[in-house]
Amino acid sequence: EAGALWGGRFAGGPSPELARLSKSTHFDWELAHYDLAGSRAHATALHAAGYLSDDELSGMLDAIGTLETRVVSGEFVAAESDEDVHSALERGLVEIAGPELGGKLRAGRSRNDQIATFIRMYLRDKSAVLGGMVAELARVIADQAEANQDVIMPGRTHLQHAQPVTLAHQLLAHAWPLARDLDRLSDLGRRLDESPYGSGALAGSTLGLDASLVAHELGFSSSVANSIDGTASRDLVAEFAFVAAQIGIDVSRLAEEFIVWNTKEFSFITLDDAWSTGSSIMPQKKNPDIAELARGKAGRLIGNLTGLLATLKALPLAYNRDLQEDKEPVFDSVQTLEVLLPAFTGMVATTTFHGDRMRELAPQGFSLATDVAEWLVKQRVPFRDAHELSGACVRLAESKGIDLNGLSDDDFAGVSPLLTPEVRSVLTVDGSVATRDGRGGTSPARLAEQLDELRERLDEL
Ligand code: ARG
Fold it and tell me: Hey, whose CA ends up nearest to atom 4 of ligand 1?
């Protein structure tokens, strides 16, 4: 077989059926750039150990450079007979450098340590790309929070009106998980910082090559301590897939808010025309497709993670070909987020929030009942009694078909003499929100502090 990396002990080439199953060039070409960087570093290590002369090293680096140019221009592509990106690029190198020199590069390395290294480099680079996009989304959320800081809306638990909150507070509650996702990516970066190159097939190399030299050339701080672990582990790939899934989930929770807020019944937001879609039959429709796709893509991202975990479960050490299945799920997760995040960010940035409508609904559903109870506590009424008295007010108001602030002074006094007319001070959404001023609370006074903290965190990450 022309380009195969093995053949000596085989009577003939692989069956077409095997070749078709085995082939990965249609997806692992994504790693070509890392493979070439690995080859440069490996040539340097071979030279340092005396396996390549000075001339051979420069000839090798020239050939790798020529190959890289051809890969970038599209002149060099995978051939039908190439099994994976690594075998294809070695074929290309031998074509350029000749079999004598080109055939020397494979000494002391295996596709097993190559692929384990390149996937880490890929994850490292993509962490930076996705991290930038996630940070941008979080910043846009923060900008919308700041621009709409006077808006008060119904805060919900169980989807029921619970207590009034500021829109800014609600929006920022979606930005903090994204900040933690960024933190997760940078934390993963510490673990990705060890190079498996030099592990060989599984047991290391006899050639005395300097693994830490290769590691540094490839931008890692160090190389792995255990060559079996280096070639057989994919927990870092799974961890990345988890973070990608969590980003998708965090985005989907904001997406769901937008979908609900965009309904006629809520009428909390209007989406910009350029960031919403129409219907092929209903002329009036304007749909939140970006948010719906965000919700849907979260499922796909979870699927990529669980598929990968299933591949890894109980897989014996060291390398098994099953591990080739790590790439498509994680590539898909990256591509999914690379397309989703900019669209979602654009949708959030261009949405109009209807503060009057939110404010109108904020006091409804007896959402100020906790404020009445806490007002009583401030008059030194035990909370247990305060809760009962406020509950009695709710029952009275409900029976009259009015809201809490519709009760008269006599109504309150009838429930308890403790409920003096001063209780009205907390029966406004502004009063309610303003008094929730402990750390982390929804009061406008705390908002500036929260925004500062978030932006500082985003700038650090
Ligand atoms: N293409 C393989 C992978 O992605 C690497 C090649 C290792 N193959 C082998 N037979 N040892 O995992």
Answer: 324
- The domain segmentation of the chain, as residue ranges, is 16-107, 112-360, 369-427
Task: State pLDDT tens for residues 96-114.
Answer: 999 999 999 999 999 999 9
Residue 111 Cβ < 6 Å to ligand 1? yes
pTM: 0.95
In three-state form (DSSP H/G/I as H, E/B as E, the rest C), the secondary structure along the chain is CCCCCCCCCCCCCCCHHHHHHHCCHHHHHHHHHHHHHHHHHHHHHHHHCCCCCHHHHHHHHHHHHHHHHHHHHCCCCCCCCCCCHHHHHHHHHHHHHHHHHHCCCCCCCCHHHHHHHHHHHHHHHHHHHHHHHHHHHHHHHHHHHHHCCCCEEEEEECCEEEEEEEHHHHHHHHHHHHHHHHHHHHHHHHHHCEECCCCCCCCCCCCCCCHHHHHHHCCCCEECCCHHHHHHCCHHHHHHHHHHHHHHHHHHHHHHHHHHHCCCCCCCEECCHHHCECCCCCCCCCECHHHHHHHHHHHHHHHHHHHHHHHHCCCCCCCCHHHHHHHHHHHHHHHHHHHHHHHHHHHHHCCEECHHHHHHHCCCCCCCHHHHHHHHHHCCCCHHHHHHHHHHHHHHHHHHCCCHHHCCHHHHHHHCCCCCHHHHHHCCHHHHHHHCCCCCCCCHHHHHHHHHHHHHHHHHC
Query: Residue of the nearest CA to atom 6 in ligand 1?
Result: 111
What class, spelled out in words, does domain 16-107 have in CATH? mainly alpha
Domain 112-360 indexed as CATH 2.30.180.10: no
Whole-complex ipTM = 0.96
Residue 367 annotated to the active site: no
Whether 279 sits among the annotated catalytic residues: the reply is yes
pLDDT > 90: percent of the chain? 93
Tens of pLDDT, residue by residue over 151-203, are 999 999 999 999 999 999 999 999 999 999 999 999 999 999 999 999 999 99
- In CATH, what is the architecture of 369-427? Orthogonal Bundle (1.10)
